[in-house]
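Please fill in the sequence for the structure shown.

STRUCTURE ENCODING:
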């Protein structure tokens, strides 16, 4: 009798891998079919204790071989973003092709820090970033990096802004080697901006808030005041951040006016387009990001409106060389040779040392599926949001927070007979009821001191009928 195969030999066996891979793809394809047929819950909600108990760390010493059984439980119990009733946070229902590329990325594991560790994907990253910068209308020399999410991307951009505008070498001398710094940021900005400035050691004054208007867009006429306030507080302002669009309502700040203000005062102009930079892909809605081409830096998440799996964020610099400023430090063990500023050793310019092959997914989908599918997805989701907003306005028992600039719609249910003082609590209860019941996944936000239901129409399979069903479900739950 042949001796049993050592587990490592089986784990790396090509035929074993082939069989398992086919089985897993079948499992995911079946799941995709069910989710897109709207079968089963969006989120099979359970409290953390249940999952902790169901997935204990009771690891066996020998192989158990029950991969499909384990993964079936993972798929079943997870949040189903491909279900058209997923209308929650700004996280995509990834293109299946992109997910397959993710699998290839994990398999090849080309870690990218230096060119040799990812030659093909480094070239793909270079070219895909050039395409993205061109899509935004940035000048020819614009370039950047891909990094792990909008939060890391905004920090990366602000680090470069600091090297360019602080007037002292904060990278080497530290945050206290010169006057305390600040950036002007709309009140509605994502929290990661205030976090980035704190990471840089600027404390709570590192962000100077700029008021927004009734549409939740930055008020350009308030910028002068904000600048003066920052200076009175002893801060040296180096940049203005504009959102395209903001997290809560998806509002697009007036980018051209902010660009003019930055030009006038010699400030760095950063656009947080984590959610909305993709708008530039849509011929119908591209005008919403007019002025983005004048930014010194832009953050653009492909894992939001470009249907990529998390995380793929582009940080684009108008002057490509600026991307070397974010992490001015050198690691000689990695970056040897004459020219330490070679663009193709990407870790010189990213927070990450090793990073996954992000560009593989985006490049492959653009190359194989073409660009129109991305443009159409943005246009369709914005159109859908507009129709949903109109429906809410005419319904009579719903209130729209603000007409949507993109695919984010905030509203509340206002059934007859509910006193205004109880409406906040009602929205919280309604959301909980729909989410826990698995019917829909939507979120909530605070605007003007009130609680609103918040939807992001980010799944391209969501239809007008689904949103009508959402309203009906809310009425029933109320
Ligand atoms: C405007 C904006 N900026 C930044 C972020 C953070 O992006 P990430 O979740 O990729 O870190 C978000 C996330 O929703 C966002 O909406």
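FILLED IN BY: designer on duty
SEQUENCE:
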């Amino acid at each position: 009798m042949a001796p049993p195969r050592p587990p490592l030999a089986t784990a790396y066996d090509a035929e074993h891998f082939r069989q398992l891979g086919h089985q897993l793809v079948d499992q995911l394809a079946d799941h995709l079919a069910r989710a897109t047929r709207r079968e089963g819950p969006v989120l099979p909600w359970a409290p953390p204790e249940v999952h902790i108990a169901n997935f204990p760390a009771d690891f066996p010493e020998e192989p158990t071989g029950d991969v499909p059984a384990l993964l079936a439980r993972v798929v079943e119990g997870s949040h189903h973003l491909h279900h058209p009733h997923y209308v929650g946070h700004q996280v995509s229902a990834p293109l299946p092709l992109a997910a397959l590329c993710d699998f290839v990325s994990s398999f090849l594991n080309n870690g990218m820090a230096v060119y040799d560790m990812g030659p093909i994907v480094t070239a793909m990253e270079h070219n895909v970033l050039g395409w993205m910068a061109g899509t935004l209308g940035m000048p020819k020399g614009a370039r950047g990096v891909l990094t792990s999410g909008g939060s890391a991307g905004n920090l990366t951009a602000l680090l470069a802004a600091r090297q360019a505008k602080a007037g002292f070498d904060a990278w080497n001398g530290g945050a206290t080697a010169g006057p305390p710094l600040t950036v002007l940021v709309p009140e509605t900005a994502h929290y990661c901006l205030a976090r980035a400035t704190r990471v840089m050691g600027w404390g709570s004054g590192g962000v100077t808030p700029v008021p927004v208007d009734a549409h939740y867009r930055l008020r350009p006429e308030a910028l002068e005041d904000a600048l003066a306030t920052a200076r009175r507080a002893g801060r040296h302002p180096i940049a203005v951040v504009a959102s395209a669009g903001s997290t809560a309502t998806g509002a697009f700040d007036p980018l051209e006016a902010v660009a003019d203000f930055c030009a006038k005062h010699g400030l760095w102009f950063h656009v947080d387009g984590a959610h909305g930079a993709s708008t530039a892909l849509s011929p119908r809605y591209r005008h919403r990001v007019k002025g983005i081409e004048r930014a010194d830096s832009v953050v653009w998440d492909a894992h939001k409106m470009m249907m990529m799996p998390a995380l793929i964020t582009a940080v684009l610099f108008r002057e490509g060389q600026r991307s070397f400023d974010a992490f001015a430090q050198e690691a000689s063990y990695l970056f040897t040779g004459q020219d330490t500023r070679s663009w193709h050793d990407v870790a010189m310019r990213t927070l990450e040392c090793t990073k996954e092959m992000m560009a593989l997914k985006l490049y492959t989908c653009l190359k194989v599926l073409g660009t129109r599918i991305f443009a159409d997805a943005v246009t369709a989701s914005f159109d859908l949001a507009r129709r949903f907003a109109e429906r809410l306005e005419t319904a009579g028992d719903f209130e729209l927070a603000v007409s949507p600039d993109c695919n984010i719609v905030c509203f509340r249910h206002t059934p007859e007979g509910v006193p205004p003082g109880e409406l906040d609590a009602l929205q919280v209860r309604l959301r909980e009821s729909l989410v826990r019941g698995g019917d829909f996944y939507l979120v909530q936000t605070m605007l003007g001191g009130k609680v609103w239901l918040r939807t992001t129409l980010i799944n391209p399979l969501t239809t007008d009928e689904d949103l009508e069903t959402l309203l009906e479900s809310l009425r029933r739950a109320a």
